[in-house]
């Protein structure tokens, strides 16, 4: 990052610039700051278009921006539901950055602002369930699991670009390729020791994640189901339990039924029962290597419109003046790509002239120790149960 000379004398404010390989971006305002990174709104000097610039300290041992960049570069099947990276680079000795399009509100903020009940209408919730299902399906089709599905990692598009009825998956920093056991005991033992564990928050963790088991595609979908249940309830049954009550959360998740939520979900028994059928489909696969039946889930969502008598053309809660025109679920062949090496992140760090006195404050180095509770699994494996852990530090905030 380098600063341009003041345009109007020594007292004129100095521009804060990020010089990437293909363009220069003027930082206009901070959007969010956390322990593990910062987000700025920036204007591309060549055409005046605005972008979001995510910055992350070079001192981090496990870089979320590098992992996000690697995942997006390694996609075999592109998806219109994924956020994109315009450019990426490094301010030497200070921080990494990625330049991304600006998106609209995340689904958590949308839900809280939907109405005074702080939850979505049936039609809006079902449309969001359908689009987020498609985004996760497309990620799984590329051979990745997300490990941190939650409302703040999905945003709607910008109204100025006529995409504010469409949903985008933004965060890929904790994605991993699943580790599937082979046919012999030695390989299975090695897989168990090096299991892919959950790195999100307790609120949306799958039952297997609580139990420190090796995770697969169905675990993302179980987190998705909890997220969608929150759309309709406004708060999950275990929302008031803190991170020290993980076993109580696990107990509720293992035993949750339609009857348990009927008192707070003011909908027909057929609608609630139909929604719980989704959870049965998600938990049906016996092996982490199996895909969930995404097409069947999408079909059940369509039937929920009929059971609940919701109007599919009804304007979404965040745009009451226009009929719904968001993307719909489309079937695709579910054949995971061959497991090849991930593409590297060599594009970071070769194009920036270096820091200057006028650059935005670099993100601070993350704390070495997490205050979150760690639950020990077999052979010392652990699962994060702290809502303020690394994945949640850098919240996706857009204007």
UniProtKB/TrEMBL annotation:
Residues 341-399 are annotated as: Disordered. It comes from the Eukaryota. Gene3D superfamilies: Transferase(Phosphotransferase) domain 1. Residues 390-399 have a biased composition (Basic and acidic residues). Residues 25-335 form the Protein kinase domain. Residues 365-379 have a biased composition (Basic residues). InterPro entries: CK1_Ser-Thr_kinase, Kinase-like_dom_sf, Prot_kinase_dom. SMART domains: S_TKc. GO terms for molecular function: ATP binding; protein kinase activity. This is Protein kinase domain-containing protein. It comes from Caenorhabditis japonica.
